[in-house]
Amino acid sequence: MLSPEEIVAFLFLALFFLEWAVEFLLNEANLRYARKREIPELLRARLSPQTCERSLAYTVAKGIFERYAELYGRAVTLAVLFGGVLPALELFARRLGEAFPPWTQATGIAFCLGSALLLSLLSLPTDLYYTFVLEERFGFNKTTPALYVSDKLKALALGLLLGVPFLFVVLTVMEKAGPYWWVYAFLFIAGFEFLLLVLYPSLIAPLFNRFTPLEEGELRRRIFALAERLGFQTSEIYTMDGSRRSAHSNAYFTGLGKTKRIVLFDTLLKEATVDQALAVLAHEIGHYQLKHVRKRLALQILLLFAGLYVIGWLVDYPPFFRAFGLAEPSSHGALVLFALVSGPFTFYLNPLLNRAARKHEYEADRYAVEKLRDPEALGEALVKLTATNLANMTPHPWYSAYHYSHPALAERLRAIKSLAPATDESMKN
User: Fold this and answer.
1) Interval 250-278: pLDDT, tens
2) Which whole-number Å values give the CA distances from 33 to 28, 60, 61, in the listed order?
3) Which of 159, 246, 266, 396 is most buried, most CB within 10 Å of its CB?
4) Catalytic residue set
């Protein structure tokens, strides 16, 4: 008869390999689908044959990379969980913690940060290959080795600066706040994340990229006129030096309240016309005006609450710790183990979350078309983004349903076409 810890390990492994099988089969299906795909007429009329061929080659290369990167990542996870790595880290953290008073939570902080650092180091091989081999092959990588190292060191310093006090509070609450510690931890973590959202645009993001106000000109004037007409209050529109690291192009919305800002990659401004850039911005404003940002925050808070509730139960269940080599329960052990093992227990949520995200994208597209009354500009902007990024134009339906937070290009163009006047010949396929 299986012991409780053996049952925990068996259940985890069953779901772990089920998740891997799903990921593997979907990736292989997407690869086969890409190799035999036919580009819809709707896209062939807008993209050159050379772009279509490069997009196919990039899709296949990424799919092959994902196949082996997934195998490597899962081998690392199994080695950490069942190869004696965690007990060794626990012993190291306890010896280090002996040099500090117990109230400092030095043992728990060292264990959590040590685990994060180890996993980050183990992910370097695939990260380096992706950046300096795969992305380099297709002309996307602009990151120099010096910049790569600098980014990693900055991320490490930032992780220590924020992680040490964060873990100190969480671990102290877990040990001192009684059986309902997870409620107090939830309030603290939610507040901490909210603070980061506010501070990120002005204090954190500039550590890695240079943000400059959009220069004077037609685009700037029309953006502020559009923002005023749509009731979107923003102090500035920024451009980001994305080309310093990559030739990929994008735009995004960040921040809350007075710190909210829309950021345009400099690569986007080089490729898009004024009307197309304005359409992208109208789409981003749509996310804010349609309360998508608030809805996503609410969902994240709900998932945080559920996760902490589960940790609150697991922290008092010794078999959970013994299943992965830890001799006894601990607050820091519960945090690290939950981070490592929660994926296989929740992977089936991915397609549901992505479905909601795709719905928001369609809604933001509709908002942009209705407010600008120029569906062609948005369609052309999406085509240029797809061409610039060599995005997979015809992903396997199951793969995109599981992985994609944005609809595929052809699906978005058809949806935009349905919003245009029936006489609009430019969107016909």
Assistant:
1) 777 776 666 667 788 887 778 778 888 88
2) 8, 10, 14
3) 396
4) 284, 365
